[in-house]
Amino acid sequence: MAARGIDLVYGGGHIGLMGILAGEVLAGGREVTGVITEHLVDREVAHQSLTELVVTTDMPARKEAMFRRGDAFVALPGGVGTMEELFEVLCWRGLGLHPKPVGLLNVDGYYDHLVAFLDRAMLDGFLRELHLVVDDDVDRLLDGLLTARTAEPA
User: Fold this and answer.
1) pTM of this prediction?
2) Number of domains in the chain
3) What's the domain range around 103?
4) Per-residue CA distances from 83 to 63, 77, 89, 116, 154 (Å)
5) Exposure check for the chain: N or C terminus, fewer CB within 10 A?
């Protein structure tokens, strides 16, 4: 991301994959904005070296702040919180509420079953189209997100 001149907006923690990513983006000289709830700050998981740390009262306010600041969304391997955030931006995209690209970094096939589920949902008519860029390579994923972003009508 840093080599491509991309800044990061994320959940504001210093632990896990996103904490590592935030540190690397900062080390590469880019800006990193963390958006975290008071609850998580109180549990001492907030990253203290960010360009900006936005503290919100609750999760809906956190997600809204992240959504407004982001130009695209990428899910790395994660748990139910990652899924909840991914499906929310996918749902909003499908409803035409935003044109921002959504990506899934499928490291070591982590999301293979999820992608199969989404393919099945399309085949069965539960999804008309899926605006999701999926790749196991970071550079190709970022290229796909850029292509999806520039392909959107003005």
Assistant:
1) 0.88
2) 1
3) 8-148
4) 13, 9, 10, 15, 29
5) C
